[in-house]
């Protein structure tokens, strides 16, 4: 072939390509902006970066969707307020006298989306699967399920298991025995075609978006919301842009100019809930290998008083954060649990430099020539780890370091990648680290205490701890937590004394230095759909990534119609 | 990720593109003058580039001293530019201008460090590998190939992981960019070194027993300096862009101020969504301006590497579009000694070409009068010899006849008339571009010196012959064209099967025969042959000369034969014009020149060449005899 | 033949060296997949109790306890068998699935964009070089400025102008998600529509390099004797420009183009990030952010093979575009 001919062909191809491109503009211009969608499809973005994997196994951490929507728990626990568990697949449950046996009554007439009936055998199968596959047993379920009849079963435990109930009843996704018993290893199966009892079923999947459609045979009747589409975007910026363009109906993530959101986005509303307690993790326990000034409780106390939370809230968090309590119970939701003995019911919102300095001087720190305290030749200089990408945290620690300078404490931010920072947190390779303590499965501060303050959940520096990163170890707290394990949550009076103990101890020791209650902000299209949670009716935690709360909200939504 | 910015790749491309140019066709590097060649000539581009680069550099050096704390936080954020904050504030009330000053400093440091490191690394591996050769070269090539494919993205994190967090900063990023960025440049340098080490002066140094490091540093390095400078500039741009890219992905030096981190924070702080142009715009513009400045400087460096890239300064008001259409100048004055332009030449032949009082001037800053008042007549079927030493203007004359001369050469005055076989005179200097194109080759064809370079190396002989026919005789059928091509090859005794060969597959003699064949394709009336045999050995030379005479006898075209070899002309020509310093000093029949040379210069020339009969004489090429010798190789 | 064997051997050694580095580099990165995963779950409301860590360690099989050398050899074996393992970040999807899903998008988008920018750059470079000294010369600094602009900056500004303000193009994504994926005109049309702006940014920011390279080569080529011969032959200018000058001048650009095709796979991370494009670049970022060694290695393998293959192709096939190099081999 002559080169000439070859070139001619290349030229033709190029002209072709350009023509196609122009055509695309022409044709594309006539269709609408992003995606052609039905007016009653709810389009959500969970804030996750990247495409969707086809993983619908609710027990895998990488699950795209399923818990609550496709697979149901027995009960729904609302962590947004103090509600009683709402029935889903279960209708009632009861403990025996000493909390070692749980009797569960199941709903009748429930069907799997493939038409098979749902029975107690499915529940028992699911629980046994957890026992069998340690990799799936993230709640450390150790009971023994016994099927009584099709709608009744009991679960027995060796020791009182009151506090296990929320995970067992609220976070165990019941799977169909007739399908899952055929699966070779449920810990490595993607479950590409999920079959559940939930209000929605997977109907369409591609990596950039998948669609859940209303389950016509749902036991509560098909939800009014016909379809939910989950789209894939590259992160917060893309999410905010898509929201501004009206391409998504619900996302949980930051948006610019939060205060004027509703003016800027007509038809949309925004809601903020506060459940995550922002703290500075401190590697506090010298016995487990921590070093540095922060091992001195006085230093932690001084930092606590020296920060100006009002300024932090304004600069770093767009005023979405709220007051928190040094007792680590949420001031509003958990008001009933807050100890009267706390020195401060809530954190001071403004800097109290004098108080901070008094505490330091009382502990033997002296002001150095450069305006920074020192003790035994050691400067009161701390590093604080922060993840590079998290701009709100970075702004917060930068602001904090200016604030603490006033009180004679030097704070140096240490940004690093998410991987490195989280790895360091686990291994205790930090002095301070900005972090947030996540809420438990029910609105009960017990879970925060057990997770983060129980010495059972920590290890020496160098090994990976989860989740007591501060390596706090206090026999009084440990004792109180184990007492709480034995007491039925209904008996609030008997429990409160232990809460009082814990709160007093941790306010004094302050292994986690409270900052503020972080706000989780969601934006949703209130013109297209009605039934959204409001500040006065938080019927579920309004975050699109919160499972199974998202399903609770989908069930309550209705297309507004045109 | 290895190639974060699209510029990185293309930068290397253009560097790579420049390299073979130099080796192939740049004028011979004068061994030790590399340093002097580094001094660029002043052009507007260079001035603008320098102003941009120096201005921004100055801002980076001084700026941070003059502005406030870039991290200082203020509760009132996102304010537009004002007297207090020249570029407004960020979301957290930080002064954008102050940040910009620090960020420019950070980015320039990254660029500088990467530029230096990558240049040193590429020089080390490229030059040494290329010079030493053998296993070392193989090893280095392997290394640079591997480095090319190493993913830089995770390497940033890995290297950062080995540095304690408090010591991390822009320099860790710079280190990674340098490590992953030198390989492409090394490959270019290696190729260049390979070509340099075979140059005569390097070979001479080797023979003289100079030490290796001395040869590399004294003979080779200075010649590579312009290339290295260009690579440095590109490395700097590429590094600044790559750092910005990494930072954008959140993998940059988060705790230092660079333009990349600044953009990253602007992007994460929703600067675009807030329409805070004062926050998002300046860092990007700063990078663009700095990159633009460096590119402009790089143009000047490129022009040093490759002088052909220089745009000739339009001293006269002529444009640079080839081919230039020089308006015919009116003939002024009468030629003094030249024979009048008769309809018949002295020996009674018909005249086919008459040149009268032709003047060609190179319009450079010091104009050179390359052809002075030359008058020549060429009879039909005559072989006219044009003799003279190199640079005497004979080639310029030949090109001017066909108006092939390029700027800055200009025909100042005179006339060139072609007397067509079919009747009618053609004033060559008056033809418009299209008429000239049609005239060329159809009536007057040329054979250039150095046939290797006169043939297009990448297309076959057949295509090059065929080209002439398709252009000038569009009516010919494909079959007829092929036959004609074979016919002319047979005329010059080249096997027609060689038609599908490429030029490099033919011997030098054969190439010249192909050129002559090509010149005969359209049966022209005049053929100008410019040193057609110079590069050939004596035996081949003889063969070709015999061929020319035979073909002239058969086909009857006239020949202007240009050479410095006067004895050869004596055998070949009917008449001979001897040129010196642009003037025809003697113009007479061959026998007359041989027997009674009048001009002393002619006598000198006659004595200076070993004639074809083997007599030896003294060479005349002392250089002082002609002021034009200095202009050897002047643009045609 | 020996020449080819040598070349091939050389590339095999380079491949091995790159594979080895690709094995060790991810393992030297700070962080581990389990803690990263836990942190991710915690931030999005997962109640990550004390026992979760152990479960996930078991599930992801990250701590096999094998010696590094054993891991290395089984890694090499797996690579040659094409078994790239299971991705941790989208557990339990196979790395091959993840890659085969995203690679075509990148190859098509960046491939076409690279080709277009090469074509436009070379053609413009040819004309600018040919008409040297005219106003066209001002194209050079103009395109160079575009090349010096940070790529993502330009992309974001394009998005702001053409997507957010004018709404001519979609904000993000690779196709209209409401359409069924497949080879139907509607879907392909939406893919072209979505790919237009990303492609435009790539072309705009890379065309300057090609233009400059071609223009410079063009200028040097134009002083070659064969151009003069062509002029003397009375050929038309257009023909001289294309068949004689450009045909020779384009050679280094073609070599550069082949090499840049090798970088198509890796050169698009930022594009894909800005436009939420479903390509391989986003996957690499995801792998890096989640300490997903298997996925990283898989993508590195693709990049390595692509770049080495492009180099090999240039080495071996250069003869087809430049006949001079044919005999030397």
Overview of the molecule:
The complex is a heterotrimer of chains A (562), B (636) and C (329). Chain A is of the alpha+beta class and 562 residues long. Chain A folds into 3 domains: 3-66 and 198-249 and 528-559, Periplasmic binding protein-like II (D-Maltodextrin-Binding Protein, domain 2, 3-Layer(aba) Sandwich); 75-180, Dipeptide-binding Protein, domain 1 (Alpha-Beta Complex), CATH 3.90.76; 275-518, Dipeptide-binding Protein, Domain 3 (Dipeptide-binding Protein, domain 3), CATH 3.10.105.10. Chain A is built from 15 helices and 21 strands. The longest helix of chain A has 28 residues, at 3-30. In chain A, 55% of the residues are buried. In chain B, a hairpin with a 5-residue loop joins strand 1 (351-362) and strand 2. Chain B is built from 22 helices and 10 strands. With 636 residues, chain B is α/β, with parallel strands linked by helices. Among the domains of chain B are: 67-309, MetI-like (MetI-like fold, Orthogonal Bundle); 333-451 and 527-609, Rossmann fold, CATH 3.40.50. Chain C has 329 residues and is an all-alpha fold. In chain C, helix 1 (2-28) packs antiparallel against helix 14 (293-321) and helix 13 runs antiparallel to helix 14 (293-321). The longest helix of chain C is centred in the middle third of the chain and has 38 residues, at 185-222. The chains are: A alpha+beta (562), B alpha/beta (636), C mainly alpha (329). Chains in contact: A-B, A-C, B-C.
What are the defining features of this structure?
heterotrimer, B: 636 residues, alpha/beta, MetI-like fold, Rossmann fold, six-stranded mixed beta sheet, four-stranded antiparallel beta sheet, 10 strands, elongated, disordered N terminus, disordered C terminus, C: 329 residues, mainly alpha, 15 helices, globular
Write the layout of secondary structure elements.
The complex is a heterotrimer of chains A (562), B (636) and C (329).
Chain A lengths: L2 H28 L10 E5 L29 E2 L9 E2 L2 E6 L5 E6 L13 H13 L11 E6 L2 E5 L8 H6 L6 H4 L19 E7 L2 E6 L12 E5 L4 H9 L5 E3 L8 H4 L3 E15 L14 H10 L2 H8 L36 H10 L3 E2 L5 E3 L2 E2 L1 E7 L3 H16 L3 E7 L1 H10 L4 E6 L8 H8 L21 H12 L5 H18 L2 E14 L3 E2 L18 H8 L1 E2 L3
Chain B lengths: L5 H20 L8 H5 L5 H23 L29 H37 L1 H16 L2 H11 L7 H12 L1 H15 L2 H8 L4 H37 L10 H10 L8 H29 L45 E12 L5 E12 L3 E5 L6 H8 L7 E11 L5 E3 L5 H7 L4 E4 L3 H4 L6 H12 L5 H14 L16 H13 L5 E5 L7 H18 L2 E6 L2 H7 L2 E6 L2 E7 H6 L4 H9 L28
Parallel strand pairs in B: 3-8, 3-9, 6-7, 7-8
Antiparallel strand pairs in B: 1-2, 1-4, 4-5, 9-10
Helix pairs in contact in B: 1-8, 1-10, 3-4, 3-12, 4-5, 4-7, 4-8, 4-10, 4-11, 4-12, 5-8, 6-7, 7-10, 8-10, 9-10, 10-11, 10-12, 11-12, 17-18, 18-19
Chain C lengths: L1 H27 L4 H11 L8 H9 L7 H14 L13 H36 L8 H10 L2 H15 L19 H38 L2 H8 L4 H13 L1 H12 L6 H7 L4 H10 L3 H29 L2 H5 L1
């Amino acid at each position: 072939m002559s080169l000439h001919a070859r070139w001619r062909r290349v030229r033709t191809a190029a002209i072709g390509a350009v023509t196609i491109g122009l055509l695309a503009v022409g044709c594309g211009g006539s269709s609408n902006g992003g995606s052609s969608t039905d007016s009653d499809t709810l389009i959500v973005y969970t804030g996750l970066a990247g495409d969707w994997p086809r993983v619908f196994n609710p027990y895998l951490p990488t699950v795209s969707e399923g818990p609550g929507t496709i697979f149901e728990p027995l009960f729904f626990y609302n962590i947004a307020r103090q509600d009683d568990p709402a029935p889903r697949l279960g209708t009632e449950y009861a403990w025996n006298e000493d909390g070692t046996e749980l009797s569960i009554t199941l709903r009748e007439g429930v069907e799997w989306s493939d038409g098979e009936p749902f029975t107690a055998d499915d529940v028992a199968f699911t629980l046994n699967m957890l026992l069998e596959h340690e990799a799936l047993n993230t709640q450390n379920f150790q009971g023994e399920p016994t099927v009584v009849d099709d709608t009744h079963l009991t679960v027995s435990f060796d020791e009182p298991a009151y506090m296990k109930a929320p995970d067992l009843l609220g976070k165990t996704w019941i799977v169909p025995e007739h399908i899952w018993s055929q699966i070779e290893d449920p810990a490595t199966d993607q479950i590409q075609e999920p079959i559940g009892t939930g209000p929605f079923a997977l109907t369409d999947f591609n990596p950039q978006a998948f669609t859940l459609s209303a389950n016509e045979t749902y036991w509560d009747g098909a939800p009014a919301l016909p379809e939910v589409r989950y789209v894939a975007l590259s992160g917060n910026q893309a999410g905010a842009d898509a929201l501004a363009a009206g391409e998504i109906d619900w996302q949980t993530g930051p948006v610019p100019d939060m205060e004027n959101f509703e003016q800027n986005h007509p038809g949309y509303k925004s809601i903020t809930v506060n459940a995550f307690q922002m703290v500075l993790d401190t590697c506090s326990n010298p016995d487990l290998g921590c070093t540095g000034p922060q091992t001195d409780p006085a230093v932690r106390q001084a930092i606590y008083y020296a920060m100006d939370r009002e300024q932090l809230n304004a600069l770093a968090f767009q005023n979405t954060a709220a007051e928190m309590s040094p007792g680590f119970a949420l001031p509003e939701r958990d008001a009933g649990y807050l100890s009267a003995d706390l020195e401060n019911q809530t954190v001071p919102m403004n800097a109290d430099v004098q108080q901070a300095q008094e505490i330091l001087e009382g502990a033997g720190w002296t002001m150095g020539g450069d305006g920074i305290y020192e003790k035994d030749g050691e400067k009161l200089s701390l590093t604080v780890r922060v993840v590079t990408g998290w701009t709100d945290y970075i702004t917060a620690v930068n602001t904090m370091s200016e604030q603490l300078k006033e009180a004679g404490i030097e704070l140096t931010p240490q940004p690093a990648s998410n991987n490195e920072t989280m790895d360091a947190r686990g291994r205790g390779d930090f002095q301070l680290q900005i972090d947030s303590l996540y809420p438990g499965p029910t609105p009960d501060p017990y879970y925060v205490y057990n997770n983060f303050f129980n010495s059972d959940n920590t290890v020496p520096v160098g090994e990976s701890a989860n989740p007591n990163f501060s390596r706090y170890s206090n026999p009084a707290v440990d004792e109180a937590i184990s007492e709480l394990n034995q007491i039925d949550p209904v008996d609030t009076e008997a429990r409160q004394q232990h809460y009082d103990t814990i709160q007093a101890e941790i306010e004094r020791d302050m292994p986690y230095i409270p900052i503020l209650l972080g706000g989780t902000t969601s934006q949703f299209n209130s013109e297209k759909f009605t039934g959204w949670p409001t500040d006065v009716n938080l019927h579920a935690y309004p975050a699109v990534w919160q499972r199974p709360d998202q399903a609770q909200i989908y069930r309550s939504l209705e297309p507004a119609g045109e | 990720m290895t190639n974060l910015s699209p510029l990185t790749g293309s930068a290397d491309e253009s560097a790579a593109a420049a390299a073979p140019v130099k080796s192939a066709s740049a004028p011979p590097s004068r061994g030790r003058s590399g340093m002097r060649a580094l001094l660029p000539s002043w052009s507007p581009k260079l001035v603008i580039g320098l102003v941009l680069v120096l201005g921004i550099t100055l801002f980076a050096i001084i700026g941070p001293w003059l502005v406030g704390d870039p991290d200082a936080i203020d509760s009132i954020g996102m304010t537009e530019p004002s007297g207090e904050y020249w570029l407004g504030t960020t979301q957290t009330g930080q002064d954008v201008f102050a940040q910009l000053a620090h960020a420019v400093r950070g980015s320039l440091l990254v660029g500088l460090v990467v530029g230096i490191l990558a240049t040193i690394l590429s020089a080390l591996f490229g030059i040494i590998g290329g010079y030493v050769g053998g296993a070392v070269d193989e090893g280095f090539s392997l290394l640079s190939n591997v480095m090319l494919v190493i993913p830089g993205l995770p390497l940033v994190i890995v290297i950062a992981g080995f540095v304690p967090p408090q010591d991390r900063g822009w320099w860790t990023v710079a280190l990674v960019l340098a490590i992953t960025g030198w390989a492409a440049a090394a490959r270019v340098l290696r190729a260049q070194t390979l070509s340099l080490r075979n140059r005569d002066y390097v070979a001479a140094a080797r023979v003289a027993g100079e030490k290796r490091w001395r040869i590399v540093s004294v003979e080779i390095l200075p010649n590579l300096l312009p290339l290295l400078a260009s690579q440095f500039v590109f490395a700097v741009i590429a590094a600044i862009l790559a750092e910005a890219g990494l930072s954008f992905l959140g993998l940059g030096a988060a705790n230092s101020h660079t333009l990349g981190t600044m953009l990253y924070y602007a992007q994460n702080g929703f600067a675009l969504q807030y329409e805070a142009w004062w926050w998002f715009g300046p860092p990007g513009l700063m990078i663009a301006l700095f990159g633009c400045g460096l590119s402009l400087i790089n143009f000047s460096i490129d022009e040093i590497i490759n002088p052909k890239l220089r745009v000739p300064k339009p001293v006269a008001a002529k444009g640079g579009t080839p081919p230039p259409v020089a308006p015919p100048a009116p003939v002024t004055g009468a030629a003094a000694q030249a024979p009048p332009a008769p309809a018949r030449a002295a020996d009674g032949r018909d005249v086919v070409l008459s040149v009268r009082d032709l003047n060609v001037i190179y319009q450079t800053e010091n104009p050179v009068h390359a052809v002075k008042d030359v008058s020549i007549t060429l009879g039909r079927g005559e072989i006219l010899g044009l003799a003279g030493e190199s640079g005497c203007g004979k080639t310029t004359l030949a090109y001017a006849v066909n108006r092939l001369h390029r700027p800055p050469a200009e025909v100042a005055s005179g006339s060139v008339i072609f007397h067509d076989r079919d009747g009618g005179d053609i004033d060559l200097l008056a033809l418009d571009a299209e008429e000239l194109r049609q005239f060329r080759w159809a009536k007057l064809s040329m054979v250039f010196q150095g046939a290797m370079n006169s043939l297009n190396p990448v297309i076959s002989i057949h295509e090059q012959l065929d080209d002439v026919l398709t252009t000038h005789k569009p009516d010919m059928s494909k079959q007829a064209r092929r036959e004609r091509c074979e016919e002319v090859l047979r005329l010059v005794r080249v096997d027609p099967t060689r038609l599908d060969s490429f030029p490099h597959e033919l011997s030098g003699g054969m190439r010249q025969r192909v050129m002559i064949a090509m010149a005969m394709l359209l049966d022209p009336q005049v053929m100008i042959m410019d040193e057609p045999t110079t590069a050939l050995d004596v035996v081949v030379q003889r063969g070709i000369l015999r061929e020319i005479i035979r073909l002239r006898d058969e086909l009857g075209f006239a020949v202007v034969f240009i050479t410095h070899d006067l004895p050869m002309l004596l055998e070949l020509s009917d008449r001979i014009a001897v040129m010196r310093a642009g003037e025809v000093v003697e113009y007479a029949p061959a026998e007359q020149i041989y027997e009674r040379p009048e001009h002393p210069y002619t006598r000198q020339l006659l004595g200076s060449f070993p004639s074809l009969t083997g007599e030896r004489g003294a060479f005349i090429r002392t250089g002082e005899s002609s002021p034009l010798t200095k202009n050897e190789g002047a643009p045609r | 033949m020996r020449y080819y064997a040598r070349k091939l051997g050389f590339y095999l050694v380079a491949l091995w060296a790159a594979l080895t580095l690709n094995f060790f580099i991810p393992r030297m990165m700070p962080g581990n997949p389990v803690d990263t995963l836990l942190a991710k779950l915690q931030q999005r409301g997962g109640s990550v109790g004390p026992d979760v860590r152990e479960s996930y360690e078991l599930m992801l099989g990250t701590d096999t306890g094998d010696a590094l050398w054993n891991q290395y050899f089984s890694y090499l074996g797996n690579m040659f068998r094409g078994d790239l393992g299971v991705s941790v970040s989208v557990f339990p999807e196979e790395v091959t699935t993840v890659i085969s899903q995203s690679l075509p998008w990148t190859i098509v988008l960046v491939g076409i964009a690279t080709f277009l920018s090469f074509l436009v750059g070379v053609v413009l470079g040819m004309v600018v070089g040919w008409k040297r000294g005219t106003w066209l010369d001002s194209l050079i600094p103009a395109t160079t400025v575009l090349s010096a602009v940070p790529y993502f900056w330009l992309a974001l500004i394009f998005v702001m102008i053409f997507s957010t303000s004018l709404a001519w193009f979609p904000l993000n994504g690779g196709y209209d998600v409401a359409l069924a994926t497949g080879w139907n005109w509607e879907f392909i049309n939406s893919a072209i529509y979505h790919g237009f702006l990303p492609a435009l940014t790539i072309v705009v920011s890379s065309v300057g390099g090609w233009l400059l390279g071609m223009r410079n080569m063009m200028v040097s080529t134009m002083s070659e004797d064969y151009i003069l011969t062509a002029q003397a032959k009375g050929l038309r200018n257009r023909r001289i420009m294309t068949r004689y000058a450009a045909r020779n001048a384009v050679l280094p650009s073609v070599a550069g183009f082949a090499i840049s095709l090798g970088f198509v796979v890796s050169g698009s991370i930022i594009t894909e990030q800005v436009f939420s494009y479903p390509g391989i670049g986003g996957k690499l970022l995801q792998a890096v952010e989640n300490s997903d060694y298997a996925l990283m290695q898989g993508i590195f393998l693709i990049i390595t093979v692509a770049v080495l293959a492009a180099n090999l192709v240039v080495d071996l096939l250069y003869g087809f575009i430049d006949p001079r190099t044919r005999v030397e081999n």
